[in-house]
Amino acid sequence: MSEPLLKIEGLEAGYGEVQVLWKIDAQVGEGDIVCIVGSNGAGKTTLLRTISGVVPATAGRILFKGDDLTKLRPDQILERGIAHVPEGRRLFRGLTVRDNLLLGAYLRRDNAEVERDLHFIFELFPILRERQKQDATTMSGGEQQMCAIGRGIMSRPKLLMIDELSLGLAPRLVERLSEALIEINRAGLTILLVEQDVMTAFEIASNAFVIETGRVRMHGPTKVLAEDADIRQAYLGG
Ligand SMILES: Nc1ncnc2c1ncn2[C@@H]1O[C@H](COP(=O)(O)OP(=O)(O)OP(=O)(O)O)[C@@H](O)[C@H]1O
Ligand SMILES: [Mg+2]
């Protein structure tokens, strides 16, 4: 098997004295959609923030295309090709949709290609084209999520990490966003998705890691996990 795009080995992290992640091992294959599921407080967001370099790792390694990213700064990790769509979307108030999207491209100098990616996002989410001059934070939750995903794509990453795709959104919108992720994946992006809604996550992703109290409890193909009695009981309503 070829080397995975992202490989996490024995990763540990936390906040001050409080350790949250314990010896996490995980991999994301190039071109895959992989999800991380687990209940509130399991450490899913902390894991993504550690990969992004926002939370320092206290042990273990994060390898991306074989390179060790563990000690790099968040901007360096973004530059290497990992974009992070944060929990709660975090768009900038007072900036238009277009400017929020362009912020994702702040490290890029290839202006023509930036325009091309903007066009790709507007094709994917036509509402963003219509609303491009509107203050991004005045849009609906679903539109803001589209903008946050678009901002992630604008850095032209190899790996797009999304923290809570569906949170607070109506089922129809979640379906629309799920389809968009599959389209983005087909366009060549590898996706690491954190999701509370395990049903949705398993529909989109080929592989999953189940995290409980900061440890990987189970992992494998979503098709297999969806049939597991413990997983069904704990996350899929029996
Ligand atoms: N900035 C912080 N300072 C201190 N502790 C934190 C901080 N952020 C998170 N924690 C703690 O780390 C643990 C894991 O939180 P994290 O946000 O990673 O969980 P999660 O799996 O993303 O949960 P949720 O599903 O609610 O988003 C929790 O016990 C939380 O209280
Ligand atoms: Mg979280």
CATH topology of the domain at 1-81 and 158-170 and 192-238: Rossmann fold
In angstroms, what is the radius of gyration?
17 Å
Uncertain stretches of 5 or more adjacent residues: none
Order of helices and strands: EEEHEEHEHHHHEHEHEEHH
Kindly provide the name of the CATH class of the domain at 1-81 and 158-170 and 192-238.
Answer: Alpha Beta
Q: In what order do the strands lie side by side in the largest sheet?
A: 6-7-8-3-9-10
First-residue to last-residue Cα separation:
35 Å
Structural class: alpha/beta
| Rounded mean pLDDT score | 95
Cα shape? globular
Number of helices: 10
Largest sheet entry: 6 strands, mixed
**Beta-sheet strand percentage?**
25-35%
What helical percentage do the residues reach? 25-40%
Just name the CATH architecture of the domain at 1-81 and 158-170 and 192-238: 3-Layer(aba) Sandwich
CATH homologous superfamily (4th level) name of the domain at 1-81 and 158-170 and 192-238: P-loop containing nucleotide triphosphate hydrolases
**What are the distinct ligands in this entry?**
adenosine-5'-triphosphate, magnesium ion
